Amino acid sequence: MNIEPQLQSIIGRFAFPGELVECEPIKAGHINRTYRLRFALEAGRTRDYVLQRINTFAFKKPAEVMSNVQLVTEHLRNAMLRGGVDPFNRVLTLVPLTDGGTLLLDESGAWRAYDFIVNAVTVDRVDSPEQFREIGRAFGRFQSTLADFPIEKLYDTIPFFHDTVKRMENFENSVAADVKGRAAGVEPEIAAIRARKAEMGRIVAMIADGTLPLRVTHNDTKINNVMLDAQTGEALCVIDLDTVMAGSALYDFGDAIRYGASTAAEDERDLDSVRLDMALFTAYAEGYISETARGLTRAELENLPLGALVMTYENAMRFLTDYLDGDVYFHIENADDNLARCRCQLALLEDMEARRSDMDGVVAELIGKYR
What we know:
It is built from twelve helices and ten strands. By secondary structure, the protein is of the alpha+beta class.
């Protein structure tokens, strides 16, 4: 096992038991750098952990991120215990440092570690509507379990994260600055973003006028942020809590749909293959609404499809903004990855717009069933 000395030193700062026998990178996600560690214990047993370096460009105040993570995981764990549910494998558990605390700050960045969720998998594409329904239930339970969490205790770790009005301002600044000279080559995409500005600011407006309440929200509800039991397929644990903040339930619902109910991957280059799968939309909506129908307001429930459109639009805008800025936020392997992601999201948004009445009809039927 060959580990660079700096990484070896970082591992040694955490209170892991036993002897380190394996260390391998986990290539998942666009933001943080992640490793899977295996430690040998007594009697031939082993135990796995996750070590992660927090991207401090995306999260400029890692101590606030970790405060949110710790508070939310404690709330989830206590709620499970009160309900007679064993929280093992069902909520993230932070590993402390040898000298206390859970966040390591050094010259290489900000680091934290978790227990590894065992006998579990994540998926980047759902295998069936039933699987997506289960993922919907997981995020719905996450939402409902945190309904009584005092949101004033959470830091706003990325200000204006889902504020599409503010993101439009940032986008226009990036277009004007054009630091990499790329704007001239993406004029159709810029025009598509601008054409939808008013409609895509509606969630922000409804929060401002009190139509939609603020809740504790995950804010990054991709399907691979739910760990599934490797044998049964049951949703075990919602992970990647860095963006847990006060927000709208529409954001969580919408991001899951734009990522999981698309017929294509997020960076698909064959745009003719990009559509909204209504069977998957229906399955996820049923799973999510079955868990939240009595907790969310009618205005929230009825506007869930708007969340899908807004989050797809927002991600198209974020990918294009990062492309114009020189790919400083999202991880890329090819120079045009962020542009490809933007185009894919815009193609999905167009299909969602064509199917809006279908989405509204599905949600209305589910509200009647579960509320």
